[in-house]
């Protein structure tokens, strides 16, 4: 072929292929394909050196082609430049995540696409030259082992699992497969209570068991931390057997703590679906049972698919929503039951979507905590709350304090304290005016980071609240390590059933202990007069809930402040 490199152009629009052929035919031998399946067939015809790949094609789209390439060693190293329509949202980012070297926007600009191709091939050439320096057989084998295996457990790492699982399923399309995602409940608490070596022992043992369960028919890998994945034929090993095996394995280690595995199962329908998306669906199923006492695993179904689509829509719109200030801060007051005055209020995010209407926090907050966007939303809410406080002070409510939620992800932000101090300075506020609420579950997820953050907050003069205390995995012993200023208890702990008497004893015990430790108490979720009167009878004065007021927009809250008055917390 005259020494020319071969380029594959895959695009369902013939006019686009003609334009690109004319642009590159002097430098390359050109192969064309009108859809993804034809592109894969073309790969077998020649030694293709680079692919121009349209993401939006019939039969088999570009992302599926990228998945196929990544799962086949013979094609995994072929550089791909993806072609993305301008209105395709984050398709370019998805292509990069799936292994594309670069992408260009359609309609393509000749100079830009030529430069991108040159840059990609130059990068590949440079990488090849570097790899040639490691030419000894032993070094190459060691390099492959290091790249493919998780260094702690010896099973496949995440990227290799994606590739090996896809390769396995696509080579045996006639077999029904399932992808299983495993997680250990409150694993960080185990590391905190024991030693890191104990946690590592559990991970190694789990990996050993899952690799044995996978056998020759399956693939297993460690995704991250205490998360594992298994790809196996549907009828290879029953889920009940796997869960029982994991339990037996843990018991054999002699660890004096409950180590509980949960799992989500996805039955594979399309073997060309990227494995990362299969695992997303298995994780969604896992989220339905994690922490449950009734079931330890869950199988993904179509209702979850509908939920997944709703979640994807939320994630697609979140950036624009923040820019357009669709998020609104509502305020729910905290009352002193004895005096009837407001002592504080909690700032809560609400999403007023232009087409969907009001989206409740439980629909978007967990998603934002998962992808990190919650940090930016928190900052937005804090800014709005601080501005409201400054205005309320000018309006005569100098004693008002506002509490804002602090997501655990903020604890990893080195600039958090600086941001808060600059926020106070900007609005002329003393630290005590802005109360910081941390969730009890944060102790189970990241105890060290939480303790460091609480210490830093209190040293800076902030009041720190432990939200929903008693509703998660923590215990009273946590208060020995985490001296917060105030506890929020949820009256929902007192269920109206035969266990209510026992619940009251526990609730009153927590309230008494908090008072003896010098901590304030706010009871939230107070909805009835009977609840209010009971709480008053055991000495709980500060209350928040529908019996007093629902969360409300800023203008309405200003009116309530003028009507009911404010006193110092």
Summarize this entry quickly:
With 569 residues, this protein is α/β, with parallel strands linked by helices. The protein has helices at 14-24, 36-43, 62-70, 91-97, 110-132, 137-148, 158-171, 187-193, 196-214, 239-252, 275-289, 302-323, 361-371, 374-394, 416-427, 441-445, 447-459, 478-481, 500-516, 529-537, 554-564; strands at residues 5-10, 28-33, 48-54, 80-85, 102-106, 177-184, 219-224, 227-233, 261-267, 297-299, 327-336, 342-353, 357-359, 402-405, 434-439, 464-467, 486-490, 520-524, 542-544. The chain is built from 21 helices and 19 strands.
Itemize the secondary structure elements and their pairings:
Elements: E1 5-10, H1 14-24, E2 28-33, H2 36-43, E3 48-54, H3 62-70, E4 80-85, H4 91-97, E5 102-106, H5 110-132, H6 137-148, H7 158-171, E6 177-184, H8 187-193, H9 196-214, E7 219-224, E8 227-233, H10 239-252, E9 261-267, H11 275-289, E10 297-299, H12 302-323, E11 327-336, E12 342-353, E13 357-359, H13 361-371, H14 374-394, E14 402-405, H15 416-427, E15 434-439, H16 441-445, H17 447-459, E16 464-467, H18 478-481, E17 486-490, H19 500-516, E18 520-524, H20 529-537, E19 542-544, H21 554-564
Parallel strand pairs: 1-2, 1-3, 3-4, 4-5, 9-10, 12-14, 14-15, 15-16, 16-17, 17-18, 18-19
Antiparallel strand pairs: 6-8, 6-9, 7-8, 11-12, 11-19, 12-13
Helix pairs in contact: 2-3, 8-9, 9-10
């Amino acid at each position: 072929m005259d020494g020319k490199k071969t380029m594959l152009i895959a695009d369902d629009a013939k006019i686009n292929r003609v334009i690109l052929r004319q642009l590159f035919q002097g430098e390359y031998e050109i192969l064309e394909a009108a859809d993804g399946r034809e592109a894969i067939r073309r790969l077998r015809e020649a030694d293709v050196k680079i692919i121009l790949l349209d993401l939006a094609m019939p039969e088999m789209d570009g992302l599926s082609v990228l998945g196929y390439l990544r799962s086949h060693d013979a094609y995994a190293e072929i550089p791909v430049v993806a072609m993305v329509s301008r209105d395709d949202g984050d398709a370019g980012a998805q292509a990069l995540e799936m292994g594309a070297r670069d992408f260009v926007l359609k309609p393509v600009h000749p100079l830009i696409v030529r430069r991108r191709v040159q840059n990609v091939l130059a990068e590949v050439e440079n990488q090849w030259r570097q790899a040639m320096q490691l030419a000894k057989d032993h070094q190459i084998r060691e390099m492959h082992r290091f790249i493919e295996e998780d260094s702690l457990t010896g099973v496949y790492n995440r990227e290799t699992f994606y590739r090996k699982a896809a390769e396995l399923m696509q080579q045996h399309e006639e077999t029904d497969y399932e992808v299983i995602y495993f997680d250990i409940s409150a694993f960080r608490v185990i590391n905190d209570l024991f030693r890191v070596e104990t946690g590592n022992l559990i991970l190694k043992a789990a990996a050993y068991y899952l690799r044995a369960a996978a056998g020759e028919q399956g693939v297993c890998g460690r995704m991250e931390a205490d998360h594992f994945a298994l790809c196996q034929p549907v009828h290879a090993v029953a889920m009940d057997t796997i869960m029982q095996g994991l339990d037996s394995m843990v018991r054999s280690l002699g660890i004096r703590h409950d180590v509980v595995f949960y799992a989500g199962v996805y039955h594979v329908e399309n073997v060309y679906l990227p494995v990362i998306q299969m695992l997303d669906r298995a994780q969604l199923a896992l989220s339905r049972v994690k922490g449950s006492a009734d079931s330890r695993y869950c199988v993904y179904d179509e209702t979850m698919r509908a939920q997944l689509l709703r979640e994807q829509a939320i994630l697609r719109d979140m950036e624009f929503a923040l820019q357009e200030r669709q998020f609104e801060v509502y305020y729910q007051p905290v009352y002193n039951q004895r005096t009837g005055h407001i002592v504080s209020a909690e700032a809560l995010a609400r999403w007023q979507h232009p087409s969907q209407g009001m989206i409740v926090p439980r629909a978007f907050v967990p998603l934002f905590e998962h992808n990190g966007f919650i940090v930016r939303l928190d900052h937005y809410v804090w800014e709005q709350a601080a501005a409201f406080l400054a205005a309320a002070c000018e309006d005569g409510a100098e004693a008002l304090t506002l509490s804002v939620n602090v997501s655990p992800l903020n604890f990893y932000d080195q600039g958090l304290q600086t941001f808060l101090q600059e926020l106070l300075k900007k609005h002329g506020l003393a630290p005590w005016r802005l109360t910081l609420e941390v969730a009890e579950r944060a102790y189970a997820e990241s105890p060290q980071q939480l303790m460091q953050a609480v210490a830093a907050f209190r040293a800076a003069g902030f009041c720190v609240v432990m939200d929903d205390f008693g509703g998660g995995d923590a215990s009273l012993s946590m208060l020995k390590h985490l001296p917060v200023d105030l506890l929020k208890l949820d009256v929902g702990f007192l269920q109206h059933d035969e266990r209510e008497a026992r619940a009251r004893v526990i609730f009153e015990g927590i309230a008494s202990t908090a008072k003896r430790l010098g901590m304030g108490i706010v009871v939230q979720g107070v909805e009835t007069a009977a609840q209010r009167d009971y709480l008053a009878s055991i000495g709980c004065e500060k209350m928040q809930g529908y019996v007093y007021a629902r969360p409300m927009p800023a203008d309405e809250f200003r009116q309530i402040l003028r009507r009911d008055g404010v006193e110092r917390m």
